[in-house]
């Protein structure tokens, strides 16, 4: 009988010790799930948010490469993720379905987006400071030979050119269709593919022009000339962090942590971070960690 009592006491003591060992988990401020789109910049920014929120005391899960714009946005609305990095032009035209404008202004688009999000119960937690805009790009050698620096300059050549685009840009109203309307141009052939193959296609000569991204280091690596949008056909795409109103209200410490990144990253810096991923083949999380340490936002 004494043996059974002793054994029971040992079991109880073990459970107490086990419970104590789990107290660090109980002391966290909660779980935050972060989404990302399907390209390097989004991976890096998702991990940057993850690291800074982890440092603020949250349990963090980063869902790298969750999906495109609508996959991430729907996941946010459903509570499957709590935050991700979006772009004002995309939110304005694709998510909020607002009309294209004759000319675009960054502050106007930001204000219109923030106002539109009110009806969606979405809050812009912060602006990151950089813009990753769509653009058209051609080989530098060809542009130099033909004196092409703007999309207007491209017009007379377009009917003889094959253009490669990502599927989203090819279809969205503020993308290629709007360029065609504003500049009154038509290309010989259109090829849709993911960004990696698109860039390889112009490198290999399979297409003559591409829908480039202004922070993408492959523009320099593949010696491409990004053409000036001289008639302002394309909207600004300033990077923003979005959350639900409910998350913002219930997690003020998380919002405060995220806002440490406010205007912290300019376009050149983002391009350099993308270079580390594309060329130096660094891991997105390592790139994010190094940047935050360098900026003094976290310690090593």
From TrEMBL:
GO molecular-function terms, A-Z: transmembrane transporter activity
Start and end residues of each ABC-type glycine betaine transport system substrate-binding domain: 31-292
Family annotation (InterPro entries): ABC_Gly_betaine_transp_sub-bd, PBP2_ProX-like
Protein name (database record): ABC glycine betaine transporter, substrate-binding subunit
Species: Methanohalophilus portucalensis FDF-1
Pfam families noted in UniProt: OpuAC
GO cellular component: ATP-binding cassette (ABC) transporter complex
Highest taxon in the source lineage: Archaea
Ranges in a coiled coil: none
PROSITE patterns: PROKAR_LIPOPROTEIN
